[in-house]
Amino acid sequence: MQVFGLIGNPVGHSLSPPMHEAAYDHCGIDARYVTFEPAPEDIGTAVEGADALGITGLNVTIPFKQDVLEHVEPDELAARIGAVNTIAFTDETPRGYNTDAAGVRRSFTHHDVALADRDAVVVGAGGAGRAAAFALADAEASVHVANRTAERATELADDVPGATGGGLGTLDQVRDADVLVNATSVGMESDDTPVPRKYLHDDLAVLDAVYSPIETRLLRDAAAAGATTIDGAWMLLFQGVEAFERWTGRDAPVEAMNDALRSHLE
């Protein structure tokens, strides 16, 4: 039996176990997906222990996505983003990847939204914002980062080829944008939106990384404006799909994983 899992603190809320186990069942893979919750100071020992125990792969979530960098060999994208959310124990040295970026890109692709030569606005300069900004730039979109703290937005923009950054006062750029990503937690625990409704329009595609609730105020406002809307469960799904494919070398059963994920969100 192969063992995969998630390492974070806390992890009790995670929807990754049912999503990945649905994939194993669908593909006839003898595997289980379990969660691990080490103390923050023990992350290095935890990665070494997983390797020693023969665990095949781990997803990584808060607060360890940056901490694990020094314990794995990150690929080029993960190194640029500065965060790892997937580890594969297939080589002598654990390999680190960032599949959050693929989650963003594949979410837009699944909804037939082209990114090349488009103008994109990313709200938020944290981990999700970094992944989104690099994903969009690598897909040849022009990226602007808007963040509550303007300095963090400009620091991220300096790392992303061709990007610009500024405070929330620059959100008016959404009026002329083709793509919008909310990479903040605004809308998760309250019926708030990070982007004023007046900036939304019918030529816009909006991805909200928040998946609980599925229909955030931002997405309701975007739908009312005629925009294409993509809920956060798609990003969660496709980062998991990318991880599954890296671990197994097989095409992921996207429909089975999506059904399992959404059954736990309803």
Automatic annotation (TrEMBL):
<dbReference type="Pfam" id="PF08501">
    <property type="entry name" value="Shikimate_dh_N"/>
</dbReference>
<comment type="similarity">
    <text>Belongs to the shikimate dehydrogenase family.</text>
</comment>
<dbReference type="GO" id="GO:0050661">
    <property type="term" value="F:NADP binding"/>
</dbReference>
<dbReference type="Pfam" id="PF18317">
    <property type="entry name" value="SDH_C"/>
</dbReference>
<feature type="domain" description="Quinate/shikimate 5-dehydrogenase/glutamyl-tRNA reductase">
    <location>
        <begin position="114"/>
        <end position="185"/>
    </location>
</feature>
<keyword id="KW-0028">Amino-acid biosynthesis</keyword>
<comment type="subunit">
    <text>Homodimer.</text>
</comment>
<dbReference type="Pfam" id="PF01488">
    <property type="entry name" value="Shikimate_DH"/>
</dbReference>
<dbReference type="InterPro" id="IPR006151">
    <property type="entry name" value="Shikm_DH/Glu-tRNA_Rdtase"/>
</dbReference>
<dbReference type="GO" id="GO:0009423">
    <property type="term" value="P:chorismate biosynthetic process"/>
</dbReference>
<dbReference type="GO" id="GO:0009073">
    <property type="term" value="P:aromatic amino acid family biosynthetic process"/>
</dbReference>
<feature type="binding site">
    <location>
        <position position="85"/>
    </location>
    <ligand>
        <name>shikimate</name>
    </ligand>
</feature>
<feature type="binding site">
    <location>
        <position position="209"/>
    </location>
    <ligand>
        <name>NADP(+)</name>
    </ligand>
</feature>
<dbReference type="GO" id="GO:0019632">
    <property type="term" value="P:shikimate metabolic process"/>
</dbReference>
<feature type="binding site">
    <location>
        <position position="211"/>
    </location>
    <ligand>
        <name>shikimate</name>
    </ligand>
</feature>
<feature type="active site" description="Proton acceptor">
    <location>
        <position position="65"/>
    </location>
</feature>
<keyword id="KW-0057">Aromatic amino acid biosynthesis</keyword>
<comment type="function">
    <text>Involved in the biosynthesis of the chorismate, which leads to the biosynthesis of aromatic amino acids. Catalyzes the reversible NADPH linked reduction of 3-dehydroshikimate (DHSA) to yield shikimate (SA).</text>
</comment>
<feature type="binding site">
    <location>
        <position position="100"/>
    </location>
    <ligand>
        <name>shikimate</name>
    </ligand>
</feature>
<comment type="pathway">
    <text>Metabolic intermediate biosynthesis; chorismate biosynthesis; chorismate from D-erythrose 4-phosphate and phosphoenolpyruvate: step 4/7.</text>
</comment>
<dbReference type="InterPro" id="IPR036291">
    <property type="entry name" value="NAD(P)-bd_dom_sf"/>
</dbReference>
<dbReference type="InterPro" id="IPR011342">
    <property type="entry name" value="Shikimate_DH"/>
</dbReference>
<dbReference type="GO" id="GO:0004764">
    <property type="term" value="F:shikimate 3-dehydrogenase (NADP+) activity"/>
</dbReference>
<dbReference type="InterPro" id="IPR041121">
    <property type="entry name" value="SDH_C"/>
</dbReference>
<feature type="domain" description="Shikimate dehydrogenase substrate binding N-terminal">
    <location>
        <begin position="6"/>
        <end position="87"/>
    </location>
</feature>
<feature type="binding site">
    <location>
        <begin position="147"/>
        <end position="152"/>
    </location>
    <ligand>
        <name>NADP(+)</name>
    </ligand>
</feature>
<feature type="binding site">
    <location>
        <begin position="14"/>
        <end position="16"/>
    </location>
    <ligand>
        <name>shikimate</name>
    </ligand>
</feature>
<keyword id="KW-0560">Oxidoreductase</keyword>
<protein>
    <recommendedName>
        <fullName>Shikimate dehydrogenase (NADP(+))</fullName>
        <ecNumber>1.1.1.25</ecNumber>
    </recommendedName>
</protein>
<feature type="binding site">
    <location>
        <position position="76"/>
    </location>
    <ligand>
        <name>NADP(+)</name>
    </ligand>
</feature>
<feature type="binding site">
    <location>
        <position position="239"/>
    </location>
    <ligand>
        <name>shikimate</name>
    </ligand>
</feature>
<dbReference type="InterPro" id="IPR046346">
    <property type="entry name" value="Aminoacid_DH-like_N_sf"/>
</dbReference>
<feature type="binding site">
    <location>
        <position position="61"/>
    </location>
    <ligand>
        <name>shikimate</name>
    </ligand>
</feature>
<dbReference type="InterPro" id="IPR013708">
    <property type="entry name" value="Shikimate_DH-bd_N"/>
</dbReference>
<keyword id="KW-0521">NADP</keyword>
<feature type="binding site">
    <location>
        <position position="232"/>
    </location>
    <ligand>
        <name>NADP(+)</name>
    </ligand>
</feature>
<feature type="binding site">
    <location>
        <begin position="124"/>
        <end position="128"/>
    </location>
    <ligand>
        <name>NADP(+)</name>
    </ligand>
</feature>
<feature type="domain" description="SDH C-terminal">
    <location>
        <begin position="232"/>
        <end position="262"/>
    </location>
</feature>
<dbReference type="InterPro" id="IPR022893">
    <property type="entry name" value="Shikimate_DH_fam"/>
</dbReference>
<dbReference type="GO" id="GO:0008652">
    <property type="term" value="P:amino acid biosynthetic process"/>
</dbReference>
